[in-house]
């Protein structure tokens, strides 16, 4: 009977804390803006900005000082690519630079006078490119177009010079055939949005309560300083209820709405979301302990997100990331959540494919749960001592 009474009391306390936390969330307009407006608006905004995801036939200017057969053939191949269209030939680099400054063209290809001479002698010929960096897509198009043409030209030159081991080039991008920047970027950003909006919203609420001299980790009076686990789990359940819905919209509805790859079953995506959201909750509870001012969240918002996106490894090989930053990346659920989402939804893997990421998030969840409990207990004790000292002074 005592065990039944304990579980009833435990569940009643947990439920009270759960309802109380939901009340705090839905009574703070700033938190609601971050959770629902920010959490749902950012993925939509990113997709609208990169709606097309590709730029075709980007106008470029050419400065061909060589004028030989090899340079002409190479430039014809560049013009034949999907990425670039040679709009104008210029006599000098200054003329081409003027065209790019006036936005007539978005890139310049410079072929030096000794290009053909080097090729005839079997030496390396160089070509310089200059891109309009007002958009990353311009740089991507110019680099892709000139590189693909150069690979084909190298193969043809080797055949003409009877090179026995000719370099064969083949374009094969199975998971992003159009090489769309939208698919490349959004696939990594979606999971990061879930983590960051949850952390910023919870930190905003924590900072607000602490500014009002209320401990964000205060335990209900009738628990008499005990029940740290039920407090953490009760608060966590409130965030879980909110973010399971927000996460499902971000991970399932947004890709469908903007025709992004969806190669995973929705049930597999929900399994991933379950592990990721729980991991983010205890991560948030642990680190939000350090937030004592409401405005601190905005400083973190500006500085942390780009770094965390880079640390996921979506734009740079994980093996090339320095060891220090690789260890730092292990602190964040987004590192494993983004990789798992890309492998599962974009690359068409299965749950067994993302098993290492699931395992890592499970370990993070266990560690951050105990750290969250410890931080709640410590802060509660500090708050009690301050209250007693204030009472003695009065």
Description:
This protein has 394 residues and is mostly helical. Helices cover 65% and strands 6% of the residues. The chain has a 4-stranded mixed sheet with strand order 2-1-3-4, with helices on both faces. Strand 1 (58-64), helix 3 (69-80) and strand 2 (84-90) form a beta-alpha-beta unit.
**Poorly predicted regions:** none
The strand count comes to 4
The residue-averaged pLDDT reads 84
**How much strand content do the residues show?**
5-15%
* Major beta sheet, strand line-up: 2-1-3-4
Going by helix content, strand content and strand pairing, the class is mainly alpha
Question: What sort of overall outline do the alpha carbons produce when their principal axes are compared?
Answer: elongated
The Rg value, from CA coordinates, equals 28 Å
Q: What is the H-and-E element order? A: HHEHEHEHEHHHHHHHH
Count up the helices.
Answer: 13
Please describe the biggest sheet, giving its number of strands, its sense, and whether it closes into a barrel: 4 strands, mixed
> Alpha-carbon distance between the termini?
45 Å
């Amino acid at each position: 009977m005592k065990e039944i009474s304990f579980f009833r009391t435990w569940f009643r306390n947990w439920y009270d804390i759960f309802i109380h936390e939901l009340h705090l969330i839905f009574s703070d307009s700033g938190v609601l803006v971050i959770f629902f407006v920010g959490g749902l608006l950012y993925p939509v905004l990113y997709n609208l900005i990169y709606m097309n995801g590709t730029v075709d036939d980007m106008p470029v200017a050419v400065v061909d000082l060589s004028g030989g057969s090899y340079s002409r053939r190479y430039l014809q191949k560049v013009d034949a690519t999907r990425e670039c269209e040679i709009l104008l030939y210029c006599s000098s680099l200054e003329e081409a630079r003027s065209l790019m400054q006036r936005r007539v063209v978005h890139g310049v290809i410079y072929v030096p006078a000794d290009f053909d001479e080097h090729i005839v002698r079997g030496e390396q010929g160089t070509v310089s490119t200059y891109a309009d960096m007002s958009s990353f897509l311009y740089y991507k198009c110019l680099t892709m177009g000139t590189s693909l043409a150069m690979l084909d030209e190298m193969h043809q030159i080797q055949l003409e010079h009877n090179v026995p081991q000719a370099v064969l080039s083949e374009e094969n991008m199975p998971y992003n055939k159009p090489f769309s920047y939208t698919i490349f970027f959004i696939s990594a950003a979606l999971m990061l949005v879930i983590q960051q909006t949850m952390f910023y919203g919870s930190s905003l609420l924590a900072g607000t309560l602490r500014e009002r001299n209320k401990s964000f980790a205060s335990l209900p009076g009738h628990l008499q300083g005990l029940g740290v686990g039920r407090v953490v789990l009760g608060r966590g359940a409130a965030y879980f209820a909110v973010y399971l819905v927000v996460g499902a919209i971000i991970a399932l509805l947004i890709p469908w709405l903007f025709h992004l790859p969806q190669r995973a079953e929705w049930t597999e995506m929900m399994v991933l979301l379950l592990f990721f959201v729980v991991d983010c909750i205890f991560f948030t509870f642990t680190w939000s302990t350090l937030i004592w001012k409401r405005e601190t969240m905005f400083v973190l918002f500006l500085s942390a997100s780009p770094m965390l996106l880079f640390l996921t490894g979506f734009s740079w090989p994980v093996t090339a990331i320095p060891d220090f930053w690789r260890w730092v990346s292990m602190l964040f659920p987004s590192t494993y959540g983004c990789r798992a989402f890309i492998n599962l939804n974009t690359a068409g893997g299965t749950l067994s494919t993302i098993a290492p990421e699931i395992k890592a998030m499970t370990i993070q969840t266990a560690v951050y749960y105990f750290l969250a409990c410890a931080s709640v207990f410590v802060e509660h004790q500090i708050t009690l001592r301050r209250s007693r000292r204030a009472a003695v002074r009065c």
